[in-house]
Amino acid sequence: MANLGGYGAINGSASASGGTTAPGRDFVGTSFKIATAGTASQFSVWCKTTITGFKLKLWRLNGANYDFVGQSQSVNLVVGLNTFTISSPFAVAVNDLVSCFIAANTGTIAVDASAGNNAPFKVGDATTSQATAGFTAFSNFALCIAVLSTETITLTPPTNLRVYQRAASGKGSINLAGTYGGVITNVEYRLVLDGTSTPVAGHDWTTLVAGPSGGTFSGSIALVPAGGWYNAQVRMSNDVSVTSNSTSKIAVGALVAVIGQSQARNMHEIGSSYTQTGVGSQYTASTNIAETLNVWAATVGSGARKLLDTLATLLGVPVGLIKAGVGSTALTSAGNTGAGYWLNTAAGQIYDKWITAMNAAGGSCEAVIWMQGEQDAFQGLVTQAVYNAGLVTFLANWTPAIAVGYTHTAIPFLIAQTGRDANAGRSDVGYSNIRSAQYDFAVTDAQTYLAASCVDLPLAGDAIHYTETGYQTVAVRLAHAYAKILGLTATSPPPVITGLAAVNSTTTDIAIQAGAGTDFTPASGITAFEVDVGAGFVAVSAAVRQDATHIRLTHASGTIAAARYQYGANPAISSLALDNSSLALPLVPLVNITVAGTARPILINDGPLLQGRYIQ
Predict the structure, then answer these.
(1) Is residue 100 within 8 Å of residue 45, measured between CB atoms?
(2) Looking at residue 595, what is its pLDDT?
(3) What is the Rg, in whole angstroms, of the alpha carbon atoms belonging to the chain?
(4) Which residue, among 74, 100, 71, 80, has the nearest Cα to 10 in the 3D structure?
(5) Which helix (H) or strand (E) holds 282?
(6) How far apart (Å, rounded) are the C-alpha atoms in residues 497 and 513?
(7) Angle in degrees, CA 370, 375, 381, rounded to 5
């Protein structure tokens, strides 16, 4: 209930009556007025002695006249406070005069001795314009009346910490809903900066729903600029004093899904030393039966927080991360040992739960990050061809199921290449198969990008998952990869191997294509190269920088057949080749370097020439 204006229904120190001449007196409260425009639907008045025949009246000063605005039905008052609902509510404007009619030969209402105020009266019960000169002064008194509005409006609070996906325009849409009571013309809304009354540009008070009915309303706000946090507010257009303000924090920005197995999950669960500063949150998908069903909440985990902050900085918008990693899950059925596999699209399985969560989070995103591979790799049961075919099918499954956000024609699929596994008995062939499949798929599929190499990341005590620092490192690489796709950073791909050339029987040059950097380190002692000179792969005796685009290998004498770099489950990382960019990006693992050169050139150019999708 809102108080629209008047002096207030108090037990004033004096009284006023309708006199003895029929029909009674019209009093005009010239000093205490309507303060807030709205609909007069209720009033309160203090009665000194019982009255038979009282009306609330509103007049509007118009030059030398009082113009009639509206009145209540005639009511009878009892001693004390009286409150009545007006049978035919009417609109009032700011500065309308709170007045009344009191029937003749009955009781009195309370008036308060109030210096400088006036409530002039005249005999009559008018409903037309009246000349001000026809009223008798009733000086230094105020009518003890309050005009009220019983209209109500209640905004259903938007989901707190929700980030809405931006569209191609860079802006987003936000849905609002709620209930109302009483007389309403339109529902109006505005968006304000969190915790303030500062309107968001273009979204100050304006119509959300015209002419709602049935006591409920819902509407969509279009073209909300990327940013946040915002709060939503609603009000009645015919009674702007009736408002409902939400404190829920909402934003428009970029939604990014982080899916896969435990490496993806651990981005959101390992470590708390990194403090998030950017605007954003995470949406926990109920892909695991043990966790809360599909909720927005503050971002947890140093890796996720670093990913969010780096994306928010590079993109210049809030970020919402969709947490959907499930430990020990495979891509393929061959790699599944019981936790499930992502190619299984049956109801209730991890893929189905992820898509359900994506729909619940808005049904759209602008990037999907894939952190998976260990489960398919460690037993050596999944070939490169099977995993590659699995990625083809997986992409074909989810691409039509999720609406494309922002300006993309297809949602970018960012692969974090599978890292190391230092546990005993893990399959070298299996890990190399998965990394090679991820590499080849990124090269051949226009929607897919090998966005981060992870072989160099430090491992935690379980010898397979990354440390807290490792998750932050891959977060930065992934964020820069996506920003590069959007053309928002000069960060280019990491250095890649494009082929080899025999110098002599004991020396071979590895050709390097630069990416973000212009050179690489160290100058000597580079680890993890092996060569095949006729008797299978063996370690080289030396690997040194020849120039900015070549590494020279020294090896046993023979005809070079092939070379490989960072092969196996746990390749050496003590002295890897790193470029001289600000991110110190590692040379990409490759297990089939031939004399003819790899048949997969990596182009660094932006735009349509960007074919080999290893971006960082």
Answers:
(1) yes
(2) 63
(3) 37
(4) 80
(5) strand 280-284
(6) 6
(7) 120
Give the Å distances, CA to CA, from 227 to 177, 190, 332, 447: 21, 15, 39, 27
**Contact yes or no for 449/413 (Cβ under 8 A):** yes
**Terminal CA-CA length for the chain:** 58
What are the angstrom distances between the C-alpha of 160 and each of 140, 237, 296, 298, 458? Answer: 52, 26, 7, 10, 36
From CA 339, how far away is CA 262, in angstroms rounded?
11
Q: How many CB atoms lie within 10 A of CB 153?
A: 21
When mean pLDDT is compared across 2-6, 154-158, 560-564, the lowest value belongs to: 2-6
| pLDDT value for 596 | 52
Q: Tell me what pLDDT residue 615 has.
A: 41
- Other CB atoms within a 10 A radius of the CB of residue 273 amount to 9
Comparing CA positions, the residue from 564, 568, 531, 563 lying closest to residue 380 is: 568
Query: What is the number of residues in the chain?
Result: 616
- What's the pLDDT band for 1 if we cut at 50, 70, 90? low
Joined together, the tokens standing for residue 78 give: 């009892």
Q: What percent of the chain has pLDDT over 70?
A: 95
Instruction: Give the pLDDT confidence of 504-531 residue by residue, as tens digits.
Output: 999 999 999 888 899 999 999 999 999 9
Beta bridge partner(s), residue 31? none
Extended strands (E) in 11-159: 14-17, 24-27, 38-47, 51-62, 65-71, 75-77, 80-92, 97-103, 108-118, 121-123, 130-131, 139-143, 145-149, 152-155
597: tokens are: 């050169």
> Does 601 score more than 50 pLDDT?
no
Beta bridge partners of 206: 189
Strands 367-371 and 250-260: parallel
Residue 162: phi, psi to the nearest 5? Answer: -75, 140
On the question of pLDDT at 425 being above 60, the answer is yes
Residue range 87-121, pLDDT digits in tens: 999 989 999 999 999 999 999 999 999 888 999 99
